[in-house]
């Protein structure tokens, strides 16, 4: 009778626990397969770090074990799979924290291990049995109410008292991270130039809806209601963010712009100049986080003749949507998500629309993406199978980037077969399709470059039907009334929309801090896959995201709603540990190979 997967995992954990507590690095490494991966989020490395192979793991353990003091490894629930391929959720502790892990064993040895810090000992969130009383049941004169205390605290912070942390950017990322900070007791101010929380969504084009489904998009702590639509509109998301900011009692400074940030070496704190409701204010936080989205400034190419154009032209980020475009000729430069959405919006409002596709694009039909790629993790079916949002996040993270393509390629091969007729019709109208350089599809394109794809929510049919024309090729120049492609094709235009993407997030730093600091931090996003727009060398984790950068006390936070939710936990714990004066020796800060 073969051993059960639970027995196999229990035996492995016992041996692993003993080896780590005895500081037996060789003994611990011997428990890993020759082809193995250990991805650590903060718990061992105070970093987001993937170790690939036994040599990497041995080097990390030798450097960290004495400080980390890991122990008490145990199954969180019965293992799954079989004796030859067991999979398990695991709890563990370090000297400073409690952790949660995901383990895959192949023939009794570790193939993948994900370790994550979940809470700091002695600095746990005040929740559940640890929640605050809220009121003193002793009657005394002069008692203050919750509202009075909240109002007084808000009036002091940033003026009489300085925040420990300032988050520049009050969109989804900054809001979710600030909620984590508040739960951990980290005094934090969020700086947002817009007048209301959620305006970064409200101010986009009228027809914008989320392309990711609701199960993928929850914010920390407070999930969307069960009757929330699968794909919410931008204004609905904007309103949710505004209410969330109030409910979570965040110190949210709207109508406030950060104009400059410098680091004071003597006091070891940032000097952040902001203008709040027209009044200059100086903040002096210890930690400064830039949460300005998933990218940098809008990338608007300068084409010869653009200044001579007599019609209207703007970047997709400035496209309002709606309006009456009856009889007007519109040219949209680009073929990714925003380009498709804007083409659809313009067609709906009467325009004669042409999409100019300058490079091949991956397209996933929304239904197929939810069914084949997301359904096992983020869906009603997943929830029914016990895969909570938190487990789904960890399962997605449990596959290191080196092996993630091998898991995604079969999914998108199946999608290509399932939707073969759809793809054939797109090709027939001249649309240049791809599934990524290695066939790994949408998610890898997103992680590598943050662009190059469209989740089809209907616009592809406009191309197939010819209601929106598509022209492939490079743009050569612009005349007063047209766009001219490299092959000589001339497209009459009254409106040009540049759906041409965005730059790297560290571009913000060049203006708000300095070009030198921006280059010291280096490029953000991508992980060195040596594919288009993600040059090598291999780095194995997203550059500079949610972890220490090469500029001390400066952090980058961003990503889609899923990433903002999941990774904000690890960033908040790193900040909290520093506020409490804990030792946080960072293992192998990632080198900066590229500037802006």
From TrEMBL:
Every SnoaL-like domain range: 15-110
Presence of the UniProt keyword rRNA-binding in the record: no
SUPFAM superfamilies listed in its UniProt record: FAD/NAD(P)-binding domain, NTF2-like
Pfam families: Pyr_redox_3 (PF13738), SnoaL_2 (PF12680)
Top-level taxonomic group: Bacteria
InterPro entries recorded: Auxin_biosynth/cation_transpt, FAD/NAD-bd_sf, NTF2-like_dom_sf, SnoaL-like
Alphabetical UniProt keywords: Oxidoreductase
Organism name: Cryobacterium lyxosi
Name of the molecule in the record: NAD(P)/FAD-dependent oxidoreductase
GO terms of molecular function: flavin adenine dinucleotide binding; monooxygenase activity
């Amino acid at each position: 009778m073969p051993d059960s997967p639970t027995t196999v995992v229990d035996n492995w954990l016992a041996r692993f626990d003993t080896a780590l507590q005895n500081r037996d690095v060789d003994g611990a490494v011997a428990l890993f397969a020759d082809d193995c991966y250990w991805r650590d989020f903060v718990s061992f490395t105070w970093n987001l770090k993937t170790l690939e192979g036994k040599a990497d793991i041995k080097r990390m353990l030798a450097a960290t074990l004495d400080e980390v003091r890991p122990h008490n490894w145990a199954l969180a629930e019965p293992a799954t799979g079989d004796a030859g391929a067991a999979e398990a959720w695991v709890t563990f502790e370090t000297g400073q924290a409690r952790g949660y892990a995901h383990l895959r064993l192949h023939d009794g040895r570790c193939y993948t291990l994900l370790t994550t810090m979940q809470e700091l000992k002695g600095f746990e969130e005040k929740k559940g049995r640890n929640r605050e009383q809220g009121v003193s049941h002793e009657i005394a004169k002069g008692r203050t109410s919750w509202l009075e205390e909240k109002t007084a605290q808000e009036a002091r912070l940033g003026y009489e008292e300085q925040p420990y942390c300032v988050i520049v950017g009050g969109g989804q990322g900054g809001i979710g991270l600030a909620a984590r900070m508040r739960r951990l007791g980290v005094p934090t101010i969020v700086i947002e130039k817009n007048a209301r929380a959620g305006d970064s969504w409200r101010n986009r084009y009228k027809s914008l809806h989320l392309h990711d489904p609701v199960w993928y998009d929850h914010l920390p702590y407070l999930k969307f209601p069960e009757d929330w639509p699968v794909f919410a509109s931008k204004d609905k998301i904007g309103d949710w963010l505004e209410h969330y900011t109030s409910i979570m009692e965040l110190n949210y400074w709207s109508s406030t712009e950060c104009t400059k940030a410098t680091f004071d070496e003597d006091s070891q704190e940032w000097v952040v100049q902001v203008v709040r409701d027209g009044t200059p204010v100086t903040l002096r936080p210890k930690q400064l986080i830039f949460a300005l989205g998933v990218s940098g400034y809008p990338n608007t190419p300068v084409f010869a003749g653009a200044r001579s154009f007599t019609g209207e032209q703007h970047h997709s980020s400035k496209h309002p949507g709606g309006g009456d475009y009856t009889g007007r000729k519109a040219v949209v430069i680009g073929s990714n998500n925003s380009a498709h959405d804007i083409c659809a919006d313009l067609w709906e409002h009467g325009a004669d629309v042409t999409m100019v596709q300058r490079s091949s694009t991956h397209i996933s039909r929304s239904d197929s993406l939810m069914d084949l790629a997301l359904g096992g993790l983020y869906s009603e079916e997943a929830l029914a199978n016990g895969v909570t949002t938190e487990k789904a996040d960890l399962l997605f993270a449990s596959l290191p980037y080196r092996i993630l393509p091998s898991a995604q390629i079969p999914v998108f091969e199946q999608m290509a077969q399932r939707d073969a007729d759809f793809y054939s019709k797109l090709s027939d109208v001249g649309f240049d399709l791809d599934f990524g350089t290695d066939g790994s599809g949408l998610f890898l394109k997103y992680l590598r470059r943050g662009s190059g794809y469209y989740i089809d929510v209907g616009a592809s049919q406009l191309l197939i039907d010819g209601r929106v024309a598509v022209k492939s090729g490079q743009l050569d120049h612009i005349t007063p009334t047209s766009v001219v492609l490299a092959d000589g094709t001339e497209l009459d235009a009254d409106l040009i929309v540049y759906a041409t993407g965005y730059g790297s997030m560290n571009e913000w730093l060049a203006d708000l801090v300095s070009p030198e600091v921006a280059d010291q931090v280096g490029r953000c996003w991508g992980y060195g896959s040596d594919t288009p727009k993600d040059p090598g060398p291999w780095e194995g984790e997203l550059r500079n995201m949610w972890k220490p950068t090469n500029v001390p006390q400066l952090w980058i936070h961003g990503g889609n709603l899923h990433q903002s939710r999941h990774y904000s936990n690890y960033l908040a714990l790193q900040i909290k540990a520093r506020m409490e004066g804990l030792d946080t020796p960072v293992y192998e800060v990632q080198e900066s190979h590229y500037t802006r």
